[in-house]
Request: fold
Amino acid sequence: MDRYLVGSEYAGQLTDADLGLLASAAADGGPAAHATSLRSDPEALLRLLEHPGAFRAVFGDHGEAVPASPFLVFAVSVQRAAAELASAGHVPERTGPRQRVPLFDAPALRDFLAAPARQLFLAELLASFTRVASGRYRARVGGRMRTRRFSELDPVRLAGLLEAVPQAERPGVYRRLGDVTLFLTGVFPDYATAHALGPVNAARLLRAAQLPASQRDRLADTPAIELWEHLGARWYRAARDLAPVATARLAVVGEVADRFRQARRVLNHVADQYLFPSGNPWFAQPGP
Reply:
């Protein structure tokens, strides 16, 4: 996706109030851009999102967020991460609760964020989990129809939908499985590794991924975060490959699949630096 198309996608999701905030933030004492004209000038809008003043306007001078749509909050957070990582020598990696070690992989994270379409992907991913779908469905179990529950924040239950939905709907389920895997490992990595992937759940997800038994056995012994990365990339590739029509957006899904670890590490940075300031998180911690 080129910058014009990416800017158009932003324009379609930002509110009028968001556009007014962006227009005033980038003025720097000069004439502000007209908020109403930004929707018809996607490239100018994208430049405003990349402006350093956009993050300050949304989060305030003291880290206190002003009224803005969740999508704008996440969009400027991802832009801020791109700016910070542009000069970073290393980025902390979580090795346990409240434990960090420096990894010198900043160039790989910069490369991931070099594409505006991948920045948009991350902002949309975060915004999509401000409302989580859940419900019930009917599935045949042991020869009998039973009612099962699913939640978009429970990968194991969500994977159960693959057995119940028609073939045409499976790409959407695979896409959401990739999304929840990236979201949990990116925003709540401690929860993802400590609570969301015990041996039973890991076995269920590996079966749902339709991996050969030998590969399932090998992956079952890998560290939890690596298993999540493998599954997330596999879900995204399935969503891309099984979709009836190839689109520019699906091409980005494939890019994220190939760079899943970098996407996860960028979200770790975003969550640590911007989404959990002073114990006031944008998201509540999932329950075990």
In short: The longest strand covers residues 134-141. The two ends are 38 Å apart (CA to CA). Residues 136 and 149 are 4 Å apart (CA to CA).
